[in-house]
Amino acid sequence: MTRRVGTDTSKFPGTAELGAIGTLEKIAALGLDGAFFRSPFELSPVLDAGELSAVADAAADLDLYLEVGVAKVNPFATPEAPQIRALGEGDYLRGMERIIRSVAAVGITELWTATANYQFRIRGIHACDRFRTDVDWEDQLVATAKVLDRLAPLLRDTGAHLNIETHEEISSFEVVRLVEGAGPDAFGITFDTANVMVRGEDPIAAARRVAPYTRSTHVRDVALHRTDDGIGRFLAPVGRGVIDWGALLDELDRGGASCNLSIEGVIGMNAEMPLFVDDPRWWAAHPDLTGEEFAVVEALTTRYEQSAAAGDVPSVAELRAPVDSGRALAFITDSAAALRAALAAREPATAG
């Protein structure tokens, strides 16, 4: 399929000031192909049918794809989204139903969700919900699967797909199992190309696993460097990190992924997330991860460190420096150019 290249709006500079339609106009002016709004409340704070329809019409007029997020589906994380429960008058699932029906009514049917959160204000392994001690991660996955089962009839009724992100707390193995268990006719995957590496996964192998179910994406590259915490994963524009984009795109095509390519940028920082590989708790929490696959991450880390030592890519200090709005916008536009070049390089030459 022809891959359209757009952007996630949660890291798009000026979105709050521009509003949804203004953001779409800015995205179109930059030559991008679509928008992935993380929250439906960015389209309409009260889910007003007229406002939602106006945004959908604006996207269509600008020839942009339009994808929208719903809410988290791990019930141990939902207390951090009180507005969803309020929308459902105390019933979280009813709040999700209102969102899904509202956006599906205006033709938005590829919907994002995720399973938990990352607390950047906290240092250490407990910043990630995977390592909570009050509830085991496996119990969180079981509870999430039950929520998916309860949402499945609604999704089938509306023709929507709820696409679970390979978020930083969950492995691609686990996301695939959730989708297969709940039903790929109602659920899919939002493939985040950078987050899988937080879980120690080879991004190409992860792409191979998720491709059959991938219906949306968060696209960005990765810088890897050893730190006092283990290995630091930083975000980088496409083509300026360690990912082999030709190989990754090949895997998406080979697996039949039906998805646009939505660049998720950076805001304020390059989002350092540690792989605590010197901590036995980290390894115990990754039963699916093989030594062979993790060896790829180690090799990519060494390669990046060598390039950084040569001055060819940013050092750890540079990666940790604040990111201003100009660089945040350049992250998106530079990534789009690199993605399109990678896509063009894979197209068969036409006869003259």
From TrEMBL:
Highest taxon of source: Bacteria
Write down the SUPFAM superfamilies for this protein, in alphabetical order: Xylose isomerase-like
Q: Does the keyword Metal-binding apply?
A: no
List the keywords (alphabetical): Carbohydrate metabolism, Isomerase
Q: What InterPro entries is this protein classified in? A: IolE/XylAMocC-like (IPR050312), Xyl_isomerase-like_sf (IPR036237), Xyl_isomerase-like_TIM-brl (IPR013022)
Annotated ranges, domain Xylose isomerase-like TIM barrel? 24-265
Keyword Membrane included in the entry's annotation = no
Q: Name one Pfam family in it.
A: AP_endonuc_2
Q: Which Gene3D superfamilies match?
A: Divalent-metal-dependent TIM barrel enzymes
- A GO MF label: isomerase activity
**Protein name (record):** Sugar phosphate isomerase/epimerase
